[in-house]
Amino acid sequence: MLKLGHTEFDVPFVQAALSGYSDLPMRRIARRHGAPYALNEVVLDKLVVQKGKTRARVLQVEPDDHPVGGQLMGAAPEDFASAAHEMAEAGYDVIDINFGCPVRKVLGRCRGGFHLSQPQVALEIVRRVMDAVGGACPVTVKMRRGLDDSPESERHFYEILDGAFALGVAGVTVHGRTVRQRYVGQSDWTFVKRVKRHVGAGVILGSGDLFSAMSCQRMLTETGVDGLTIARGCIGNPWIFAECRALYAGKPLPPPPDIPEQGRVIAAHFAESVKVHGERMAARVMRKFGIKYAEHHPQARPVRDAFIAARSASEFGAVLERWYDPQVNWPPVRRREGHGDLVASGAQHE
C-alpha cells in the first residue's frame, strides 16, 4: 500500500499532474479505470491567490475528486506558501511542489526545474509550504535527477532531497531525466533505484518512460520505489490503470479495449468535458485527447486526423459515429506497449 502522510492508496500507481491535460474530466475518467489518486494540472502560485478564473477553477474541489493533489509552480517562497494555504483550505488532499518542469519559458522565469540549481531557495520553498499547510495535508515534491549531468547538479539534487525529507515531506517523485534532457533520451531508472536505496524508508515515487502496465511493473521491480507517477503514458489511455492493477495483483493483462469500448470511454470523457468546459470549449479541449486516444485504433492515422478536424460538439460526435461504430467489423485492436509503439494483442513484453 502506498501512503503519503495520512492518505493511503490501495495500489501504488497514480496519475501525474499534466499541464494542459489533467483537468477534472481526465481525472474522473482515470478514477473510473482504477487510478487511486490523481493530481490536478500544475498551476502557477500567483494565479491561486489572485482573483480570476484560474483561482476560482483551482479552488473548486468537487466531492467526487478525492483524493486529489494540487501541484504548485513558482519562483518566490512566499508566493508558494500563500497558494499552498489556499489549496489546503479548499480541500486538496496533498500539496505537491514542482521542481521538475523542463520547459524553457518556465526555467527562464526561475520556476520548475530551475530550483534544482539553487538548493537553499528550493528548501526555503518546502519549509514555507510545510508551515503554510500546518499539517492539514501531506506535502510532496516532484524532482528531476538534476539540472544536467554534472556532479554539481547531482550534489544539488541530494541536498534538496535530503533537506526535504528532513523538513517532513511525505514523499518525493523522481523523474529519471535531467531538466536539460527535457523529454529526449531514456529515463535513467538506475538513478531512481539509487535514490530509493539512499532514502531508505522515505517514500519515493518513480517517473519516466511509463507508457504501459508492463513498464510500470518493471520499474517497481527494478528500482524498489514505493509507487509510480504515470504521466504521458496515461493521456488517452486510462486503461493503463486497470492493467497496472491486474499485473500488480498477479493476474494476466486484460484484453486491450475493443472499438466499442474505446468509443464509450471517449464519449464519456467528452461528456465530462462538456459539463466542465461547455460544448464549444470541450470540442477544442478534446482534440488533443483524441490524438492520443486514436493511437489505440487500428486506423490510427485517419482517426487522428478526424479528431484534429473536429471543431464542434456535433463534429466530435460524428467522429465517434464514423470511427467507433460497433456494427463495423474492425481489425483487431493492438495493445500500445511503449511510447508510440504497438504490439499485437497478447504479445509478451520484452
Task: Note the topology.
Layout: E1 2-4, E2 7-9, E3 13-15, H1 24-32, E4 38-39, E5 43-44, H2 45-49, H3 53-58, E6 68-73, H4 77-90, E7 94-99, H5 104-108, H6 119-133, E8 139-144, H7 151-167, E9 171-175, H8 189-199, E10 204-207, H9 213-223, E11 227-230, H10 239-248, H11 259-277, H12 279-293, H13 300-309, H14 313-323, E12 335-336, E13 342-343
Parallel strand pairs: 3-11, 4-6, 5-6, 6-7, 7-8, 8-9, 9-10, 10-11
Antiparallel strand pairs: 1-2, 12-13
Q: What portion of residues is helical?
A: 40-55%
Please state the average pLDDT score. Answer: 92
Number of strands: 13
* Discrete helix count: 14
Which term fits the overall shape?
globular
**Class derived from helix and strand content:** alpha/beta
Quick one: CATH superfamily of the largest domain?
A: Aldolase class I
What is the number of independent domains? 2
CATH architecture of the largest domain: Alpha-Beta Barrel
Query: What is the CATH class name of the largest domain?
Result: Alpha Beta
Low-pLDDT runs: 339-350
